[in-house]
UniProtKB/TrEMBL annotation:
This is adenosine deaminase. It comes from Lacisediminihabitans changchengi. One of its GO terms (cellular component) is cytosol. InterPro entries: A_deaminase_dom (IPR001365), Ado/ade_deaminase (IPR006330), Metal_Hydrolase (IPR032466). Its cofactor is Zn(2+).
Length: 374
């Protein structure tokens, strides 16, 4: 059983957002399971599940995630990870993940996950990566054969920042770079676990020219972002929303607000370092608490208006009860964005994707063609 994305349209009866070509850069595999699958696999494994009704289980995840705390938010993953410990289950979850992205109009998706969390039943790191890749490829084929939609997906391998220097995962990513892995990430508790702790991994990745993104500026502030850029040499910032702490309102008048950028935010803007913003998730985890607790308070629009390379993402579709189309709809509704704005977000994502230049340009052409026909 699968859930069909809602028919989100631009306010005023505009274009159907789910039909538009989209790019997903920040989407966790263990945060995008179908509740029907969790129940089936969980019962088979003898797990104590919060609820056996798919709809009620979805509600449970949303309640747990909407806790105003990243630490509490991360606890929901204990259940999803528990059903992702065999090659068969990993492949199934990855296949369904791709199918769900395809139905939402995604043409390029980067799915991040931490192989080190999926070894309890005896899989090796390489076997886990191979299982996920098999599921991705099956999902791509099924989407194409059943709908005609063409989607591509690459893996981002995450090292858990609290578990060591990350070198083994960096080596794993490089080992599989021509077999489905597009890049590297670090995830897990941000505060107290700076990027410099994983310096051996980042040095190895730089030596092998492996793309990397770093979770930063979500549960910690500017020092975390600074470390991601200069210790991790990140090409993108996972969330990065708290870069807005380095932007100060200088003065306001009846028509405009004038701001001053600090050196760090100016660097991120000038270097066009992509921000993997996830609006609903940022609300769920209290990442924007200093600005407010509603979407209108999110600094997304400020960053966009100032010319930062903002991208729109879901982070964890299950926990935040969302899709990429829904995130775009909510932003359009809140900030009065039009089709051109949504196209800009997708072109930003295309430019920031971990693909060769020529393939990024092809993505941009697909986006432009798709939006022109909307």
């Amino acid at each position: 059983m699968t859930s069909v994305p809602q028919d989100y349209r631009l306010p005023g009866g505009g274009a159907e957002i789910s039909a538009l070509p989209k790019i997903s850069l920040h989407d966790h595999l263990d945060g995008g399971l179908r509740t029907e699958t969790i129940i089936e696999l969980g019962l088979r494994a003898g797990l104590d599940l919060p609820d056996l009704d798919p709809a009620e289980l979805r509600s449970w995840f949303k309640r747990q995630a909407n806790s105003d705390s990243l630490v509490e938010y991360l606890k929901t993953f204990e259940l999803t990870i528990a059903v992702m410990q065999s090659a068969e289950n990993l492949s199934r979850v990855a296949r369904e993940f791709v199918q769900d992205l395809g139905r939402d109009g995604v043409i390029w998706g980067e799915v991040r996950w931490a192989p080190e969390q999926h070894l309890r039943a005896g899989l090796t790191l390489d076997q886990a990566v191979e299982a996920v890749q098999a599921g991705i490829e099956d999902g791509i084929d099924e989407v194409r054969h059943t709908t005609g939609h063409r989607i591509r997906v690459g893996q981002l391998l995450s090292a858990m920042r609290q578990n060591g220097d990350g070198l083994e995962i960096a080596e794993l990513a490089v080992r599989h770079r021509n077999k489905g892995v597009a890049g590297f990430d670090i995830a897990g508790p941000e505060a107290g676990f700076p990027a410099k702790n994983l310096q051996p991994a980042f040095d190895y990745l730089a030596e092998h020219f492996m793309p990397r993104t770093v979770h930063a500026g979500e549960a910690d502030g500017l020092d975390s972002i600074r470390g991601a850029l200069f210790d991790g040499r990140a090409l993108r910032l996972g969330h990065g929303v708290r870069i807005a702490e380095d932007i100060v309102v200088d003065r306001e008048d009846a028509e405009s607000t004038y701001v001053a950028l600090g050196r760090l935010s100016q660097w991120v803007k000038d270097r066009e370092i992509a921000l993997e913003l996830s609006p609903t998730s940022n609300l769920d985890t209290n990442a924007i608490a200093q600005w407010g607790d509603e979407l209108v308070d999110h600094p997304f629009d400020l960053l966009y208006q100032l010319g930062f390379r903002v991208t729109v993402n879901t982070d964890n579709r299950l926990m935040s009860a969302t899709t990429l189309s829904r995130e775009l709809f909510l932003l359009a509704e809140t900030f009065d964005y039009d089709l051109g704005d949504l196209e800009s977000f997708q072109l930003n994502a295309a430019a920031a994707s971990f693909l060769p230049l020529e393939e990024r340009e092809e993505l941009a052409d697909q986006i432009i063609d798709g939006f022109e026909g909307a």
